[in-house]
Amino acid sequence: MKYSNFFIPTFRETPSDAKIKSHVLMIRSGMIKQETSGIYSWLPLGFKVLKKIIKIIEDMHESHGINQILMPTIQSSDIWKISDRYDTYGKEMLRIVDRNNKELLYGPTNEEMITAIGKHFIKSNKNLPRYFFHIQSKFRDEIRPRFGVMRAREFLMKDAYSFDKDEKSGELTYENFFRLYLSIFEKLGLKIIPVRAPSGEIGGNLSHEFHLLLETGESKIFIDDIFLKSNFNDLKISEIKAINSFTDELYESLNISQSLIERKSTELGHIFLFGTKYSKSFDFKIDYDSDKIFPYMGSYGIGISRIPAAIIEGSNDDNGIIWPKEVSPFDIVLINLISKNENTESFCEDLYAELKTNNYDVLLDDRSERPGIKFSDADLIGIPIQIIVGKNFIDNKDVGIKTRKDSKELTVSSDNIIEFLKQMKV
Question: pLDDT, tens digit, for every residue of 351-367?
Answer without folding.
Answer: 999 999 999 999 999 99
